[in-house]
């Protein structure tokens, strides 16, 4: 029988707990669906723009446009579970935003990757 080393086992169990209750990720093509992206934009602007700006260019992070290889599962996990890095706190939204809408927000965030900044 194969046994995982304790640190690795902890990571596996933590990852499973973090996604418990979360919907399965949509296919990559679904994340590019214009209707899903638009629904995600509407929810992002209503919920996330206060801290991140309406196009992910505000706040104490790299602009979302600069993140072309950002893993959708990681984006989803941070929105759902939140995180803290020093004094920067991203609240967990799992109790406020249904998982389907979190995936819509992920689709919108992914759609920004590699896009040029709007000209004033």
Automatic annotation (TrEMBL):
Domain Cytochrome c: start-end pairs: 35-113
Taxonomy, superkingdom: Bacteria
Pfam families: Cytochrome_CBB3
Gene3D superfamilies: Cytochrome c-like domain
Secretion signal span: 1-22
Keywords: Electron transport, Heme, Iron, Metal-binding, Signal, Transport
InterPro entries listed in its UniProt record: Cyt_c-like_dom, Cyt_c-like_dom_sf, Cyt_C_IC, Cytochrome_c_Oxidase_Subunit
One Gene Ontology term of the molecular function aspect: iron ion binding
Protein name per Swiss-Prot or TrEMBL: Cytochrome c
The organism of origin for this protein: Aquariibacter albus
């Amino acid at each position: 029988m194969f046994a995982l080393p304790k640190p690795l086992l902890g990571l596996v169990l933590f990852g499973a707990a973090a996604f418990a209750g979360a919907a399965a990720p949509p296919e990559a093509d679904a994340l590019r669906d214009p209707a899903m992206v638009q629904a995600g934009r509407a929810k992002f602007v209503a919920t996330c723009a206060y801290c991140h700006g309406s196009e992910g260019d505000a706040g104490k992070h790299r602009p979302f446009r600069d993140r072309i290889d950002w893993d959708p599962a990681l984006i989803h996990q941070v929105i759902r579970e939140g995180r803290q890095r020093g004094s920067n706190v991203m609240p967990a939204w799992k109790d406020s935003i249904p998982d389907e809408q979190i995936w819509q927000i992920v689709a919108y965030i992914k759609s920004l990757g590699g896009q040029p900044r709007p000209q004033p």
